[in-house]
Amino acid sequence: MENKYDRILKWIIFGTFGFLFVLAILGLIRGLAYGQEIELKITPNPAHPGDLILVEVKGMNKDNWIEEKLSVNTAKIKLFPYKDRVIGLVGIPLTQTVRQLIMYISVYNSKHDYSYLRNYELKVEPKDWPERRVVETAPLSPKKLARYLKEKALIKKALETTVDAPLWQQSFRFPFEKEEETSPFGQKRIGPTKTRQHRGVDLRAPTGMPVRSMNSGRVVLTGNFLADGKIVIVDHGLSLHTIYLHLSRIKIKKGQMVKRGQVLGLSGDTGFSEGPHLHLEVRLNGEAIDPLQILDILK
């Protein structure tokens, strides 16, 4: 026979669980309500290696939400306002072999007492790249090899130099007035002993044509390198860089802020080049992405 103290203890236990159950139901309802107003628009999906992915957070009420976070697998992606939208950029490496990536969106409300979490699937499909047979160059001398490795280290350091905010507000533009591609992005260059992929795009340009910055940013590297010739790298913020190679002349300085369309230099035939042209690269977090795709993605 239960006594008075047993009844009190049961009342406390059941009352506590009941209270927690109500809170859980209220939290679920609130979570569903918030979940209905947030979604990710992922373009393109499915994607291919070398693609630039635009992730747009749609349906966010900024009166309710003050902080949003996006991650792809374990990599954190910066979200930022762009043309009345909240977007993030994801680059798919040329060497990507994983066929599926998971994106996680986490958003906190204005009181920071609730976090919404949802995951989305991004499919990555293989791509048949164009091929070209090439003749391999003779091995570099020890002195030239040392110079080559030093210059590659400078490029790597430059691509790690960025600011945690976009330095552009307008869409990206072509570096010339006319677009004429001579060697596509991702092309497999097959030699007798090794195969490598073209990490940029070659554009037809006679020596002396003005090369313009694809967007506003800060110059993080200039130089006259053994393989790349006269080079300019511009940081556009958020680890997004554009690279311009084989220039005949450089018209800006390292550390200089440049505007969209500003002349960086003149096209040329310097470095390991087979003729006058511009080799153009776009890197996101150090990974090469299709330079021409950014013209359509970030309109």
TrEMBL record:
Transmembrane segments: 12-33
Molecular function (Gene Ontology), one example: metalloendopeptidase activity
InterPro entries noted in UniProt: Cell_wall_metabolism_enzyme (IPR050570), Dup_hybrid_motif (IPR011055), M23ase_b-sheet_dom (IPR016047)
Top-level taxonomic group: Bacteria
Domain named M23ase beta-sheet core: residues: 197-291
Keywords, alphabetical: Membrane, Signal, Transmembrane, Transmembrane helix
Pfam families named among the record's database cross-references: Peptidase_M23
Protein name: M23ase beta-sheet core domain-containing protein
Source organism of this protein record: Candidatus Azambacteria bacterium RIFCSPLOWO2_02_FULL_44_14
